[in-house]
Write a structure and sequence with these properties.
This protein is α/β, with parallel strands linked by helices. The chain is 35% helix and 26% strand. The radius of gyration is 20 Å and the shape is globular.
Length: 331
Amino acid sequence: MKEIRLGTIGTGVIVEQFLDQVVRTEGICLRAVYSRKYDKGSALAEKYGAGQVYTDLDSFFYAEEMDCVYIASPNILHYPQTKQALLSGKHVLCEKPFCTTVKQAEELFALAEERGLLLMEAVPTAFLPNLNVIREQLPKIGKLRLVQGNYSQYSSRYDALRQEQALPNVFNPAFAGGCLMDLNYYNVYLNVALFGSPDRVQYWPNLHSGGVDTSGILILQYPGFVSQASGAKDTWYDSVFTIQGEDGFIQIPGGSNGLRQVRVVTKTTDETFDLQSDPARLSYEVRRMTDILLREDREAISRLRSTTLAVIAVLEAGRKSGGIRFPGEEW
């Protein structure tokens, strides 16, 4: 592949942040935009130089001017839209959370492999340089005993819930909303990326009457240590992620979404590491995914796929334990 010709689904903030980095990255360019509303799609296309705007999804997927789709629609649409894109012969970059069940994820990855297409979850954590810094520094703190991650950010849409207005998408089970599928997702991803799949998962959510969690605590039990993943869209806090071992601790100020710094403290040392000079965290994601696609690096995609599948399994188990069901699910 000489150049990635991209089409996008979605016009939200995350799409613009993603495209801000696309225009900075060689080997990838925006060619097409899909939006249900032409005016929104046209504004996005004009801002980032796309030549085509579609309001019909079928026409968009079969557009010849693009060969890769970036999907940033509501969570519940990730699975059907990714499937349709693959069936249309397009490579796919799908925003987190990749989908809602392991069965869906396995089906999508199998379909991509069957058709010789490239499929990745677009989650910044996987591509941040400081992730490898954490991995390299873990031996310094000895045997792990306790991991604690808190990502809390008051949602502007939570006010609508407090005023008993219509459920916003991010708090609507019909759209696979809720805190576990959004903010706390980053804590789950970092745990799985560092430590693999846990032995046990239990979620204690604060449930809204609409059926999804506005905040909650997820417990991941690993051999020899336990991890607490806390997330909240109904409060705010100084987010942080901490890994405690018998010989020291690793602290990540700002939490799992960004990995801005890595502080490593032992009985004799106190060091801070940071390999991320670019303040735009999505820059690393876009550059790395572009490189993987251009080189058709299936080994890298296989590693990312394994992490994505493990993360989806944790989320699904957590939702089941916390009583959070999305449309069509029967447990």
